[in-house]
Amino acid sequence: MHTPRIFITGGSSGLGRALAQRYARAGWRVCIGDIDDARGAQAVGELRVHGPEVQYLHCDVTGEADLQTAAEWLQAHWSGVDVVVNNAGVAAAGGIAEMPMADWNWIVDINLLGVVRGCKVFTPLFRAQGHGHFVNIASMAGLVHPPKMAAYNATKAAVVALSETLKLELAPDGIRTSVVCPSFFRTNIANAMRAADPEIEKITHKLVDKARVGAERIADQIFRGVGRGDFHILTHTDGKVAWAIKRAAPYRVFSAMMARQTRRMGGRPAAN
Length: 272
Known about the structure:
The protein is an alpha/beta fold and 272 residues long. The protein has one domain: Rossmann fold (3-Layer(aba) Sandwich). It contains 9 helices and 9 strands. The protein has helices at 14-25, 37-47, 64-78, 101-129, 150-170, 198-209, 215-228, 237-248, 251-264, and strands at residues 5-9, 29-34, 54-58, 83-86, 92-93, 132-137, 175-181, 194-195, 232-234. The radius of gyration is 19 Å and the shape is globular.
């Protein structure tokens, strides 16, 4: 009987680690990639409680080489892979005038181009085996764009656009695509955040640390959504409501809602 196989970038902590645990509990072969080898080894030790077929590979998504090595390892040792989760990501916050271009380059290289590289490298493998499923981790910030988060919003919106493109482009090859758009949940992403505005950094930490939902619940929702073949996987009710308002209501209604959020975050909303 075929044992399903999954590869997860950024898999040694946060949502990536929670996803690895969820799939390992379900009996999958789990391969995680990350740049933190010590945390990766620790994660593998925890995952092997659920089964022996767990692997860690050093994987820096800012280049294709490690991703290609991962694809070759999966082909050689597990005869391929069924699901690739492009999860590795970082956060940056600050106003458009304050955010340094170096931070823009940093977040684009990881959040957007890291996903692009993952899809580019693994598409030939998926095509050769006749099936596969990309799961691209975006954010509600990719659908509803809060103020003082231009760099983060732009990368996550681009991941949504990329995923919509690949859903149509790769379907004839038997390749499925999902894009995940969670709102705030408890994770460690804010710890490495680059913030041009100390107040925004403080607010972001508060929203993440006090979120009612943890990474484990988000991972379970993703597991079930991927199993159903969902394209959009929205994990929070408030996110679904905000997106519905943006799509259905007159823009002035949505704009007023965003203006109120701007005031709460210490900015100055544009006049309506």
